[in-house]
From TrEMBL:
Belongs to the myo-inositol 1-phosphate synthase family. This is Inositol-3-phosphate synthase. Residues 214-318 form the Myo-inositol-1-phosphate synthase GAPDH-like domain. Pfam families: Inos-1-P_synth, NAD_binding_5. PANTHER family: MYO-INOSITOL-1 PHOSPHATE SYNTHASE. It comes from Streptomyces pimonensis.
Length: 387
């Protein structure tokens, strides 16, 4: 009998890290639990654009290949946080126990965040190195092919001096650790002028800022509609009622102002000028992770006929944001694999205030996203350069 031919063992698929700033928050917990649930076939990938037909052959990392860790100032373990979210209806009942092992594994990789308010024990450069060392250690110990750093922490006020705010310290740490950076919040992050040279010289891709999940998502659809139908918008006002950690953070007027800037920018970009009206954000703790967003749009029709459109969006921010975070992790990790550098303008579809040049209309942004997917598939450039 002839000997069986020698068959080499299959090469294990590479694994990729997702390092979350705010790793024990609602969005991060929902993303980690949701990734495990979808990867195990317990739930469909509803809300994940990267699981649709246009993205199936882009070489994106599989959900099962993602390994989670991060920084946070909170000490509530992820399994307990997931139980709280299930009790409030954000996660399905029974899911925290079904993905308990994955939550425990991710929780082991969460490191203390900072700096605490008023801290003078370390310089900015020292904090950046501490955070970067945590990220590098994560990649090394887990044997990862690379990692993406995504900021999903609570909104911080815009800086009022030259000091780097915490979001910018984390952003700098990501680049120092050799990782692409995604800012899913309206916080400063890489937008700080002091970080521009680092972003330009890092040779890394980055994306942001402020995930577009609810009210602004709708505005990016309705704004172009009024323009395309030649209807004159006279005023556009909005109100947001929300609770949870985001509601508490946005009770700070300075943080709310940072959040509203992106909402108003979408209208100015799509309508050609900012209409009258403001957005108000009210913290209603009883709502928890659920949000109601109301818009009142006054517009003129033919012969000056005055009309009004009112919209109400009721949803769960964490459930809307989590699939987008997973999309961005996969797309950015693949962009890094393909050698793309600089601002990923093709990902503007996901943000209120996208980096790089690109359209403001959601339909046009989706077209750009599909083109970006084609570039990932073909190994071509995305307005940036290959290294």
């Amino acid at each position: 009998m002839s000997a069986e031919p020698f068959l080499p063992a299959p090469t294990p698929a590479p694994r990729f890290g997702v390092w979350l700033i705010g790793a024990r928050g609602s969005v991060a917990t929902t993303a980690i639990a949701g990734c495990a649930a979808v990867a195990a076939g317990l739930h469909p990938p509803t809300g994940m654009v990267t699981e649709t037909a246009d993205f199936t052959s882009c070489g994106l990392p599989s959900l099962s290949s993602l390994v989670f860790g991060g920084h946070d100032t909170l000490d509530c373990p992820l399994p307990k946080r997931a139980e709280h979210l299930a009790d409030s209806g954000v996660l399905p009942h029974g899911l925290p126990s079904a993905v308990h092992a994955e939550l425990v594994a991710a929780d082991r990789e969460i490191r203390p965040g900072g700096p605490p308010p008023g801290d003078t024990g370390r310089t900015q450069e020292q904090w950046i190195e501490v955070f970067a060392a945590d990220i590098r250690d994560f990649v090394h110990r887990q044997g990862l092919a690379g990692a993406v750093v995504i900021n999903v922490a609570s909104t911080e006020p815009a800086p009022t001096d030259d000091a780097l705010p915490p979001s910018s310290l984390y952003a700098a740490a990501a680049l120092h650790a050799g990782c692409p950076y995604v800012n899913f919040t309206p916080s400063t992050g890489l937008h700080h002028p002091a970080l521009a040279p680092l972003a330009d010289s890092s040779g890394l891709p980055y994306a942001g800022r402020d995930g577009k999940t609810g009210q602004t998502l709708l505005r990016s659809v309705l704004g172009p509609m009024f323009v395309q139908r030649a209807l004159a918008v006279r005023a556009w006002s909005g109100t947001n009622l929300l609770g949870g950690g985001d509601g508490a953070a946005l009770a700070d007027p300075a943080a709310a102002a940072a959040k509203n800037a992106g909402k108003e920018r979408v209208l100015a970009d799509t309508l050609g000028a900012a209409p009258e009206g403001e957005v108000h954000i009210d913290d209603v703790p009883a709502l928890g992770d659920w949000k109601t967003a109301w818009d009142h749009i006054a517009f003129d029709g033919f012969l000056g006929a005055r009309m009004v459109l009112q919209t109400t969006w009721q949803g769960c921010d964490s459930a809307l944001a989590a699939p987008l975070v997973l999309d961005l992790a996969r797309l950015t990790a693949r962009a890094r694999q393909q050698g793309l550098t600089g601002p990923l303008s093709g990902l503007g579809f996901y943000f209120k205030d996208p980096v790089g040049d690109g359209p403001s209309s959601l339909a046009e942004q989706y077209t750009e996203l599909r083109r970006f997917a084609g570039r990932l598939r073909d190994g071509a450039d995305d307005r940036g350069t290959h290294r």
